[in-house]
Write a structure and sequence with these properties.
This protein has 223 residues and is α/β, with parallel strands linked by helices. The chain has 9 helices and 7 strands. The chain starts with a helix and ends with a strand. The N terminus is likely disordered. The structure holds S-adenosylmethionine. S-adenosylmethionine binds next to helix 5 and strand 2. Keywords: Methyltransferase, S-adenosyl-L-methionine, Transferase.
Length: 223
């Protein structure tokens, strides 16, 4: 079944092709699947905030690919991407999840507990910039997932880059911002993403690629 959230996140594909992509990716496990459904049932007006279904397996794949043990997520909502990454961590791995909404993340906490990974997830309810700035300068982060307020993406990037271990990945979501990034007159979040994308491109501390996954995903590797 295709959820409304995933239908919203396929600007480059037909519904048929999108279904085909989902069918040729690892299926979501029952807790992740249930979290998609519950998020739509509990927060129908905000469910579009959830990362697209194919991003769960993609993030899990990246965590396993680089053998990540220390993950930071900026923007957790109801916990879908955090759960997908936490499930891919080794038992002693940790994921710091940054958000400001107790109501939304409460749903995540329930799902993390049901999936048996709650002990790997350290939820920090505070402005994410404060949480990142409080992390030790030599944090040695393996993977960071950026998916919160777009106006702060550059500030998050600047806090994260020095804390990434060499070879560590920053994955940034919504870098196409529903196609609005091509508009030089863009304002608000779209303008912030335009500035972020230029900032990333010019940063010689990182090697970056922009992928047309969902609403656009940049994957950047610390050199
Ligand atoms: C797009 S949603 C994240 C979706 C999530 N990655 C998922 O897969 O379900 C963005 C989240 O960022 C949070 N957020 C917005 N501004 C924030 C801030 N300044 N600090 C921390 N979290 C923030 C919102 O509360 C919201 O839950």
């Amino acid at each position: 079944m295709t959820s409304p959230a995933s239908r919203d996140k396929r600007p480059l594909q037909t519904a048929e092709l999108y279904r085909y992509v989902l069918d040729h990716n690892p299926p979501l496990d029952p807790v992740l699947r249930d979290l998609v459904e519950t998020t739509h049932a509990r927060f129908p007006d905000r469910a579009g905030l959830q990362s697209a279904q194919e991003q769960g397996p993609m993030l899990a794949f990246l965590v396993r690919l680089i053998g990540a043990r220390r993950v930071v997520e900026v923007g957790t909502f109801t916990g879908f991407s955090a759960l997908a990454m936490a499930q891919a961590l080794p038992e002693d791995g940790t994921l710091i999840a940054c958000d400001i909404s107790e109501e939304w993340t409460d749903l995540g906490r329930e799902a993390w507990a049901r999936a048996g990974v709650a002990d790997r997830i350290d939820l920090r309810l505070a402005p994410a910039l404060d949480t990142l700035r409080a992390l030790p300068a030599e944090e040695g982060i393996d993977l960071a997932y950026l998916d919160a307020d777009k106006e702060n993406y550059i500030a998050y990037w600047e806090e994260l880059v020095p804390r990434m271990r060499p070879g560590g990945l920053i994955v940034a979501d919504n870098v196409l911002f529903h196609g609005e990034v091509t508009d030089p007159e863009a304002t608000g979040a779209a303008a912030a993403i335009r500035a972020f994308n230029d900032h990333v491109l010019a940063d010689d501390r990182m090697e970056s690629i922009m992928l047309t996954v969902a609403d656009g995903v940049t994957v950047a590797r610390r050199l």
